C-alpha cells in the first residue's frame, strides 16, 4: 500500500470548487525537457473527476514594486558604478505571467574573466557583471540537474532599489539539496526539479552582480578540479505586493493584516484528514477556485478565505481533541492550545503557482526544525514578502510542487501555514530529504549558525508542536523510529531512532538549522511537553 495519498480539488472541496484552475509553469531562459508539470501529472484519488480545464489567460498585470523596501540586506555599502542606469536591459528573461503575483527573472550565468579584485576567488568561474534589473527582493542560483551538487562558492552583491550604492559581497548557501522531496517520490521524479542554492533575502533591489567559483582545494588543501553544474542561472524573485488588507501590529503572534476572524466553536472536532466528501461551501467572490481549495481544507477552524486561524484556549483545544478521539474511551488527550496561524491567504500565497492537488502521508510522527538560510535582514512586517519569495523560488525556480515546509515561523513568533493541504493534516512536505514521510517541517525564517534565534521564535516552535504533535498523540520529549528514504547520513530503508522534535541535521549531514537554533531545541521540547500538560 502506498503511503502517499493525493486528494484532488474536486473531492476535497466538492461543489464549491468548480472554477477552472491554471497549472503551474516554470520560468527558464532555455527550454528544458519536461520543465513544466502538466495538471494531470499528479495522481488523482480514486473516484476523482477529470482534471479541471485551464484558466482563461487574463490581461497582463503590471508588476508592482516589491514589498519590504525598508530593509536592504548586506554590510556597509561600497562604491557606486557611474555607468549604472535606472532602466532595465531589454530582453531580460522574465516570467511576469498574466494574473500571477510577483515575477522571476532568470539570467544565464556567463564565463568570468580573470579578476583584478584580490578579494575575489580565482577564475575560471561563472557570473554576471553589475547590471540594472527589474525590481527583486530575493536571489538564488539554479542549474539543470537536480542530482548534481554545486561544489564551490556563490556570492552576490546588490543595489538597493532607487539608490546608487551597492552592498558588500554576501555568501549564498550552496548546499540546499537536503531541503527537497525524497528520492523516488512523485514530486522528485516530476521532471521539473532542478538543483538550487538556498534563497537569500536581500530586500528591495534593482541591481545585481554575482560570481560562482568551483572548489579549488579539498579539505586537506590539495588542489582539485571540480566542474560546476551545467545550466547555471541567477534567479531574481519579486514577491509582488502584500495582500490588500488592513495592517496589524508586527510582532503580535498570530496577528495578521485584517485582524482576527471569528473563533471556531469549541465543540467543533479537530479531525486530521480531508473534510467530508460532498461538503458544500459558499466561495467568496474574491477567491479563485485554487484559493478556495487551499482554504477549504482548514474549514474546521476558520471561514473560507480567512487570513487567520484564530488561537484557542487550552480547554477549547482539549475539548475539540477529545471529541475527535472519542473512540479512545478513557484516553486523556495530551495537546497544547492551538496557536494563531496565519493562513496562506494571510501571507498572500498565489495558489496558481502550486500544483493543484494536495499530497498526504499517514500520520505525523515527528517535527523537523529548520532555518530558512535566507538571512536575518528582514522585519516582521516583511515576513509575508519573504514567504512569497521563498514560495515562488521553490516552485518556479526549483521546480517543487509547492512551498517546501509545512509551517514557517518569523523572528517575532508569528506562525504561518506553509505547504497547502490543511494545518491539522499529515501533509507531505519537501523539507528533510529522506524523512519527509510521516513528519512535518518547520522553517524559522533567518540564518542561525552564528546568530541566536529570538526567544519568540523558539516559543512559537514549542506552541506549534504542542498542538500539531498532540493531534497525532506524540510526546514532544519522546523518541520515535523513522525509516529513511535515503540521505547522505542514513541509507534508504534504515530504521533510525530520533527525537520527536528533531533538527534537520539529525536526518541529514547539514548545518541546518544552524548551531545556535539547534541548541535551543531542548528548550522547545520541554516547553512543548509542558503545554501539552505532560
List the helices and strands and how they pair.
Elements: E1 5-7, H1 9-12, E2 103-108, E3 110-111, E4 126-143, E5 152-160, E6 170-172, E7 195-196, E8 200-214, E9 233-238, H2 289-296, E10 308-309, H3 314-324, E11 341-342, H4 344-347, E12 358-360, E13 366-371, H5 383-397, E14 407-409, E15 415-417, E16 439-444, H6 455-471, E17 479-483, E18 495-499, E19 501-503, H7 515-518, H8 521-531
Parallel strand pairs: 13-16, 13-19, 14-16
Antiparallel strand pairs: 1-12, 2-9, 3-4, 4-7, 4-8, 4-9, 5-6, 5-8, 10-11, 14-15, 17-18
Helix pairs in contact: 6-8
Question: What does this entry look like structurally?
Answer:
Strand 14 and strand 15 (415-417) form a beta hairpin. This protein is of the alpha+beta class. 14% of the residues lie in helices and 19% in strands. The chain has eight helices and 19 strands. Helix 6 crosses helix 8. Strands 2, 3, 4, 5, 6, 7, 8 and 9 form an eight-stranded antiparallel β-sheet that branches.
